[in-house]
Amino acid sequence: MDSVSSTSSKVPANATFVLSNISHLDPTKLEHGNYHVWRFLFLPILLSHNLLGFVNGTKPCPPKFLQDSKGKLSTSVNPTYTEWIIQDQNLLTWINSTLSEGVLPYIVGLQSSKAIWDDLEKRYASLTSVHESDLLIHILDGLPVAYWPFKTTINTRSMSDPVTLDQLHALLICEELALEDTPAVSKPSTASTASRNPTIRGNQRRGSFNNKGRGRGRSNFRGSHNNSNQQNQ
Hints:
- By secondary structure, the chain is mainly alpha-helical.
- It contains 11 helices and 2 strands; from the N terminus they run ααααββααααααα.
- Helix 3 packs across helix 7 and helix 5 packs parallel to helix 6.
- The chain starts with a helix and ends with a helix.
């Protein structure tokens, strides 16, 4: 542990994650009947952060110690090993934070993200048999508020051109990237809101009409009163 902490300052910034982000990226808690939904939402996270290799075995843990000039292991800790351990443990924490209380006891003692990923797949993949259309509904319903316009678009499109899981997967990645690049939108002004709100526009028109009507009424009344006085004279 001392060697890890002593070299942690050399780890690049992209090696660390923000734990609070995971609740927005994957709001689904893994339970006994929704493994495929949970996995479907988690895979884009792994891909976008270049972490898929940690769970599929294509990015194994490097040797802990460096080799000396003679090719023998030295007592110097390999910086690449330190970086890998930090990334793997952060990913492990991310995975654990998306597991329900009923699932957590089964992964106690597993010490790498791959060990947890493999155990969850063996334990739950065969238990879930969901039709693709039902799976799409579960995935869309589990998206956070920021994705609601995206959800509406997919539901509307599916009426005439059903979306497959592979297509939804690609569209979700694009939507995630678009949301990251979208600046915060300021609150619309009153005038702008009124122009888009038919109720407000209607009230404004009625108010303007009533004002004009009251103005004409007073003018006619004064005109009639003057004409009456002239006739009496």
